[in-house]
């Protein structure tokens, strides 16, 4: 018995590898902005995507304002054969993937399948799908649970479907850390590319957390805003902050080695994933010791990983929890690292809500778009920064010279993540440090 | 070479057949099965009414009443296993800086027990779509987001370094251990709690496997229902449980005089990009994962002393992985013992990969290979040595463990006895 | 059986709902040379179709080795047909065939032809096939039974095939209407084939008795109303002359 019939073992990163992980394709799906161009326009115009619940009869329901991606429950553009077997959360990822692949001019079939990986974040799985099936079980009986429940609800469904749909046989992963999970996924994608375990990794995440039961679960966190006014329900860093508004959507992106990307003729990268770090808070009720907070260690860890000083950071995309204590912890951390009002800080998510697993990937895409367009997208114009927050909160779109951006994300329970994005000069995309163009 | 390597220095297990590593290893080496009629809920009306249940008493395992209410069953398993593993390792987490302690815990279905219980309350047993949201169970959000399990383990261990929850379905356990090893290798942590937990024996999970006829309907003979590699197998038997391993950097572990069970020498994850539940009989992608894992471990195929198979108990899996073993190990595949502990502890979805790594670490430590229970009539189309019925004392230095799961995910991991050169770094 | 217990169009609807196949692919389902796999339907999709049918009719389908949907359709109907209960009732109406045909097939007017229907709403009409909703008069507790049926009329053959689309307590309910000349007028005959769902409040035997009793009442009423109309028309014609 020999292995001659088997597929060839994946080769280590080919000679063109530079050890720099770049993003070559992006997408964006958010309340108020479907597709990257539409999303970016919405941000620059500070168009809010928040509004009343429309997908179920919510009279009397204690959650009044959410961020829905407009359109029917089944996401347009998804093959109906896949739509029957997937939750909306996976469908959003499929549509976003199509945009990212197109943006990166990447035909997965043109690369060896083991060189293509998929690593996504998920926070709550296939909520509406799962609720329908569990309803059938409890109201009608076990025979009424359909065969797709076994593949649609679990947290790995999206990664599996994307891998199958695009013939990606390389490393697949799924990470969960609520709103911080997206950075873990992108960080793991970067590691995978830099270690040569895959040439291209499709990464990011989406979320569809607006089914009645999923919202009920979120209510238990005590962090949802009770507000009924879409413009005033989610006001991070404002005196009037009362919690966040949950939204659906997210972003998928393609991470690859800069040299490999150039070698395949990829379009100019959006930027480099230059640094990443994740930390965890002390247990609740335990006073932290004298050292830096876990959040600060994440921020400083990501900067160190990027070989960047705080002074090099041109803009920070804040986690912007929208709850007074969490906001204070974040603004204090940023003031410690960058100095009071030492760096522009923005929270575009105040326009569309917290998207959990989709949130940090969308912030990364937003940061990359900011680097490309040299403009900082604003925080919701309804936010008035409270004096207690010593940060330079960007209230309207601000043109700026941007080369390095920091994304901060926190997940419920104590998860902290930070990621540094750095622009790649236009000339870089056609200059290959090592190796050669095919 | 100054490459950092992860070694296993502590083991904690909650498994069917008895809580704790000792009870677990005794079950395996006795070749007994812990599969039985489902007692966690009234399973009449279900197609498969059997499971490998853990007899788990949270209070007896040291959990407080508050912890028991706050945590889903899967999280309870994880915290209990984490505490056992820490104690077993002799590592003093309070002596390691908190930010150098990491967690990587896997789970396939997270906190479904709590999610389902609470759902029946707020929906009045499924009678309304717009559920009663007025006064939800205070810990319900922890149940919605499985990262709560990672958080609980972190709190139990005082971890403030990287903490992640890995959820790649039935390969979650192997993948979580692999990512925990990466923390050590990358230098982002010095002490890592790596493992996986699942408590899937609840109506919705049992029903979803009923629907696709994946689980065994052998309700009349639960003790003999899990029959991997047997001609008469008829599906897997659901299990539950958890294993947590303590991972440390090899040199540091050696310097503190820790008992080293084994080194995590190599791992790889590949996907079949074929079907969410289906497997091709050629096992090509699993073979690729095995090949890369061995390559990273820098070990030749004939060094493998034991293969811990996925062995779920479906014909599709048996053919798939047997083909992968033959393709990668060649002639050696016919000599090396291959067994499935799922025959005894069932298939606990994401948890089982970590439980199997625990079994592999113990196999190396005890030089004993656990058997495949219930294997009375080996399927003639397979043809390997599946260690029927009885454990085998056998020098075990290198183990290959594999996992295969929904989504098409295939993971392989190579574990070796502590290698001498590790001490000279 | 006059009609297959599961109508073919309904079978196609089930396939589409359970597998998501687009219409152009669905159209190939009738071809026994097109396998289920050819249609892009995987094992889970097939299970979804089978489970839907099994739950609807409380049957178990052994579809091992089945390659195409026509085989499954056959399997379903082969299993359902023997379970059918059957009633047969007829009445002779002293009126011309054209009038009997027109009045008994004017679904919108059924509340004035039968005593049991409070409302009849035509939902869809295509060629000789009409889909409509019928509602009974409210019961004492206010509950209104309502369902959707479909009938396909073949005037040349003097025959109508009807079935319930929303089957309610029935697993299936088919009615074959036939008309023929008979001594004393036109004989209208209803052959009903049906099977109750396992969770229905009554079983097949009870429903058989109920249908037989009610058919006599309704047929007498229909006969009376059509014969009156025939008389009125004859009178009108006389006056007209």
UniProtKB/TrEMBL annotation, chain A:
Listed CDD domains: CLF
InterPro entries (UniProt xref): Beta-ketoacyl_synthase, Ketoacyl_synth_C, Ketoacyl_synth_N, PKS_Beta-ketoAc_synthase_dom, Thiolase-like
Record key words, sorted: Acyltransferase, Transferase
Domain Ketosynthase family 3 (KS3): 18-423
Keyword Transferase recorded: yes
Keyword Acyltransferase: yes
Pfam family, one: ketoacyl-synt
Domain of life: Bacteria
Family to which this protein belongs: Belongs to the thiolase-like superfamily. Beta-ketoacyl-ACP synthases family.
Name of this chain's protein: Ketosynthase chain-length factor
Organism for this UniProt entry: Actinacidiphila epipremni
Source organism phylogeny: Bacteria, Bacillati, Actinomycetota, Actinomycetes, Kitasatosporales
Automatic annotation (TrEMBL), chain B:
Membrane-spanning residues: none
Domain of life, per lineage: Bacteria
Record keywords, A-Z: Acyltransferase, Transferase
This protein's record includes keyword Cytoplasm: no
SMART domains xrefs: PKS_KS (SM00825)
Database matches in InterPro entries: Beta-ketoacyl_synthase, Ketoacyl_synth_AS, Ketoacyl_synth_C, Ketoacyl_synth_N, PKS_Beta-ketoAc_synthase_dom, Thiolase-like
Residues annotated as domain Ketosynthase family 3 (KS3): 3-417
Family of this protein: Belongs to the thiolase-like superfamily. Beta-ketoacyl-ACP synthases family.
Protein name per the record: Beta-ketoacyl-[acyl-carrier-protein] synthase family protein
